[in-house]
Amino acid sequence: MEQYVDALQEIGNIGIGNAATALATFLSAKVKITVPKAVLVPVEDVFQVIGGIENSVAAVVQRVEGDLSGTLLFFFPEANALSLISQLLGHSTESMNEIDGMGQSVIKEVGNILTGSFLTAISVMTQLTIVPSVPMFTFDMLGSIISSSLLCTGMLEDQVLLIETELSEEDHLASGEFIFFFNIGSLNTLLASLGLLEN
Asked: CA 142 to CA 149: how far, in whole Å?
């Protein structure tokens, strides 16, 4: 399992490096991003590992098709999402329930940049074709978002990829997490492409 973690950590590092460049352009500011952890987690343990399933989060949900298929989520805790919106739009908002379409677009664009950079890193490292859908924004309790996102996805692998990350711009720090739920067969395709399994 350790060799899997090293390879997945490398994917995360490359993807996050790309995301830092793209976000710096989007924010017109220097952005630092770290990848504290990249792990495969049994799907039945996801809620236990990430915790806070009743916490309100702002999330970007994306379907993925191609050589790899599944559902990708990137989510910010509510306070972090509000902080990002405040930085980018120049005004503060007390609750995500009060944000307008522009605020939603900010979170969706940041999430889209992060997930897109991550998927590009996987594609470059593995030469697999990955086709992401248009990202969707949602704000709800974390457990509800995950459950509703997986309702129509069919059979899933019994492990999911979890990557925690932190991004900072000047003195502002925000943390978020990726979760990649693989459709059946896709995890083995990914690991085989990384030379970790025989084709």
From this structure: 11
